[in-house]
Design goal:
Strand content: 15-25%
Strand order of the largest sheet: 3-4-6-5
Shape: globular
Number of strands: 6
Largest sheet: 4 strands, mixed
Number of helices: 4
Helix content: 25-40%
Distance between the termini: 13 Å
Length: 149
Amino acid sequence: LVAALKGRQDRWSLVSIDAYLADKWVPFPATHERFQENRVLLFDDPRLEARIARSEELAAPLLFDIVFYDGDHGAEQIRFAEQVLASPMVNLFIFDDRDFEYPARCAEKFRAAGWLDLSLPLVRVPGDKMAPETQTLGIFKRPDTPVYG
């Protein structure tokens, strides 16, 4: 995300909101300190803000233009998707693992609300978490908003 933003314009900001919890996909200790070390090493830029939080802790309405969600693919994702739909600010909503049950429900909510489905064809390959050819993102754009390059 940072690389894409840097290549597009001088004025941008990115807020990363993450609980920084280790799980089966992150086998090493996931801490805010480790994130900050990686941020400085890979993309040191003061326009990137990192917050330790869970999605349910975010105040409504969401004050972001683009939201990328990759977290709890359960009831919390449905609740968060409803918060995105209610926000007048969010124009683009992207989420991972769209073929899972709850992300698929989210996709239906966005389609029903008239959002445009810009998702690429779904592709799962063996070892997909590390395979660059895997495509599992759901991408939805609020109608009547600019198309992002």
